């Protein structure tokens, strides 16, 4: 990882002294910051649910980090795939939503308008629908509600 410019790194590039074992297949980093991840989080969670569940079950089996590297790599690959799909069809809407999150302290409630366009694009392109887990079933999802005047 290249020096992000913090004082405590003293200008040197930082390299992880313990790279993963050579026996593990390479997987790229997801390569996005917090706002794009948060913007895509519900869709990544839905698309990658099985991989995430396998990873969490593995972590419960054994707390040794090496035990679940294979499952973790599957989660990472799935997230990368989801982000690539989002960017291939809805790049402008995605960028508008995550830029809003970035500028509004990562608060979904401050970015409902770009979120509506983003969700509509993903539904049109892929049939993906955002469902907030554990939301009441007898009320509209929070991102679909009409704001109070």
Structural notes for this entry:
With 149 residues, the chain is mainly alpha-helical. The protein has four helices and no strands. The longest helix is centred in the middle third of the chain and has 35 residues, at 69-103.
Distance between the termini: 47 Å
Q: Count of helices? A: 4
Helix content: 40-55%
- Sum up the overall morphology in one term: globular
What's the story with the biggest beta sheet? none
Q: What ranges have pLDDT less than 50 throughout 5 or more consecutive residues?
A: 1-7
Structural class: mainly alpha
Short description, anyone?
This protein has 149 residues and is mainly α. It has helices at 34-47, 49-61, 69-103, 112-126. Helix 1 crosses helix 3 (69-103), helix 2 crosses helix 3 and helix 3 (69-103) packs across helix 4.
């Amino acid at each position: 990882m290249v020096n992000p410019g913090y004082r405590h790194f003293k200008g040197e590039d930082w390299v992880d002294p313990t790279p993963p074992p050579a026996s593990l297949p390479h997987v790229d980093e997801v390569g996005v910051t917090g706002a794009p991840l948060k913007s895509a989080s519900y869709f990544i969670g839905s698309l990658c649910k099985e991989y995430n569940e396998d990873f969490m079950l593995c972590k419960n089996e054994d707390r040794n980090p090496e035990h679940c590297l294979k499952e973790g790599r599957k989660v990472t690959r799935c997230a990368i795939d989801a982000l690539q799909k989002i960017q291939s069809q809805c790049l402008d809407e995605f960028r508008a939503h995550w830029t809003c999150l970035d500028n509004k302290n990562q608060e979904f409630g401050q970015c409902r308008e770009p979120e509506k366009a983003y969700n509509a694009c993903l539904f049109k392109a892929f049939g993906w629908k955002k469902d907030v887990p554990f939301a009441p079933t007898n009320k509209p999802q929070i991102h679909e509600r009409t704001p109070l005047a």
